[in-house]
Amino acid sequence: MLPAAFSAHTNSMDRYLVPAGLARFEETIQRSRFVATVGRAASVDEARSFIAAVQRELPAATHHCYAFLAGPPGSSGRSGMSDAGEPSGTAGRPMLQVLTGSGFGEIVVVVSRFYGGRKWGTGGLVRAYTGVTQGALAELPTTEKRDLRYVTVAGPYSLVDGVRRLLAKCEASVTSEVFAERVTWFIAVPVDRSMELQRYLTDLSRGEIEVTP
What we know:
alpha+beta; Ribosomal Protein S5, domain 2; Alpha-Beta Plaits; five-stranded antiparallel beta sheet; four-stranded antiparallel beta sheet; 11 strands
C-alpha cells in the first residue's frame, strides 16, 4: 500500500516562474535617468545582497529604490520595498505592486534614479517607477521552478521497464538505484506530478511496489 505522505496536497505554488538571469531597462523621463535592474532572490538576504551590488555599481545615482518578493508569487511574508528618499509611496510600493501582479517569484528589482534637475509631482514619479519596472520585466529571461518530492520505490525485476516508463511520463528522475533481491529506486518527482505517479504505480503494481517518502 502506498503511504499517505506520498500523495500530499499540491498547489500552484509548487511551480512558478523565476528569473533565469539579469535584465536591465533604462529610460530618461523629464531629464531624470531611470535604470531598472531585475534579478533573482530566493531569500531576503539574497535580495539585500543584490540591492547592495546595484548600489555599488551605480554609486552616482540619487536614489536606489527597490522592491522584492523572496519566495513564491504573492508571498508577502518575504517581501520588502523602499522609496529610498523619494516621497512616500511613489517608488517602492508601485514597484512591489508590479512584481506582485507579474506572477514571478524569487524576484528583486532596483530602480536607480539620476536626478535631472526638474521637480516632479507624486503622480509622475509613480508612473515613472512603475513603467521602468515593467520595462525591465519585459526583458527578463525566466525559467520554471518546480519543487521536488523525494521517494523510494521498491519492486520486483519484472516491473523495471514499466516503472521507468512511468517515471519518464511524470517527469520524475532516478537519483540512484540498487539491484538486490528487489530493485530499489531513489526518485525525485515534481510535487505537482507526485499524485499522478502514485496512481500510475498503483495501477501497475497491484500491491507489488512499495513506496516510502
